[in-house]
Amino acid sequence: MSESKPEAPLMIGVSGLRGIVGESLTPEVAMRFAGAFGAWLHDRLGRQPTVVVGRDGRAGGDELQRIVVDALLSAGCNVVDIGRAMTPTVGRLANHESSGYEPEAGVVLTASHNPAEWNGIKLLLCEEMEDMSFVTAAPSAETAAEIIQAYHDGRRSDASTPGLRFEIADASAGHANAVVRAMNSTGVSFDSRQASVVVDSVNASGSEGAACLFDRLGVDSTQLHGDNSGIFPHTPEPTAENLSGEGGLCDAVPGLKADVGFAQDPDGDRLAIVDETGRYIGEEYTLALCAVSILEAHQSRGREHAGTETEEIVLCANLSTSRMIDDIAAKYSASVVRTAVGEANVVEAMKRLKREGKAVLLGGEGNGGVIWP
């Protein structure tokens, strides 16, 4: 018997699975997949794993999260439940160094920018590097194949006792604080005087994090769609077409005389920008503008510490990202390493280059996704 209908496919890949709720993505599928992941983790570690779980906030995601948490607990995993949270927030807390629970993995209930009838289970793994630091990202292709096979085999954990469930209620605030600390420590500057922004979080997980961040930065922010209802006010992908309708972000920014508009997708790992006139700048410029800020700060700090050893500065981007990133890197005597499309491929390259002793300042993709180590 097939697990999916042709019109409602169950998509399984490096990051996990994605399908239409109630059709290809059923409670039984979610339970089996999460249980198989828990069993795989248990076997891999040879002990009780700890997993951070969050959801992108879309309507109905709370029930899927309950199913996944129960399946992980039954598989003998401890679960740190952070409720509604951005994918990057789950990724940060799933890092062994960033949480008091020392987790080894993360699970995000999200269908990214897909319409409301979709949802999914995205997997993250925390890996220890040679310098004893930790990196959290989607599994490599080889590891993902093992997890998918465990799901198809219906693998179950032989753990004798269920895991324990914990909660973190302020994950978004903690993430915002960490970003501000990182800005301060790396010299990335932001002039908040007279600044005002409008944020469209499509009533999903990015709204709380954005509000916390701009509050910490002392920036006047307006939430255009931030009621956390999980009901999308428009098609959730942050494209020009979806933001340009009447009352949309492109209208709201000049209407409110704001300086800039930011549009997120439901799980907050893609960002598009609208300028003060309401013109859609888009996602392709997000990584480029972040690279300018990071490289400028790095160069300024280098001038402050003249005479120190010069590092080879590297940025990583996938092959679908425009050459803007190359032109920016060249201006700052940095190089760009290209990877296959996919966040996991970018992170793998960043880890490899770091092991080689290079200064890997930034990575990302031209879809508005930025990876800041």
Short description:
With 373 residues, this protein is an alpha/beta fold. The protein is built from eleven helices and 17 strands.
Please explain how this structure is put together:
The protein is an alpha/beta fold. Helix content is 36%, strand content 24%. The chain has eleven helices and 17 strands. It has helices spanning 27-45, 61-74, 87-93, 141-152, 171-186, 206-217, 240-243, 249-255, 284-304, 324-331, 343-355, and strands at 11-13, 16-20, 50-55, 78-84, 105-109, 118-128, 134-137, 165-167, 196-200, 220-225, 260-264, 271-274, 280-282, 313-318, 335-339, 359-365, 369-371. Strands 1, 2, 3, 4, 5, 6, 7 and 8 form an eight-stranded mixed sheet that branches. A five-stranded mixed sheet has the order 10-9-11-12-13, sandwiched between helices.
Mean pLDDT: 92
Helical amount: 25-40%
The overall strand count is 17
Please describe the biggest sheet, giving its number of strands, its sense, and whether it closes into a barrel. Answer: 8 strands, mixed
Strand content: 15-25%
**Cα distance spanning the termini:** 44 Å
Class computed from helices, strands and strand pairing = alpha/beta
Query: Counting H and I runs of at least 4 residues, what is the number of helices?
Result: 11
Shape, principal axes of CA atoms: globular
Order of helices and strands: EEHEHEHEEEHEHEHEHHEEEHEHEHEE
Cα-based radius of gyration, to the nearest Å: 21 Å
Uncertain ranges: none
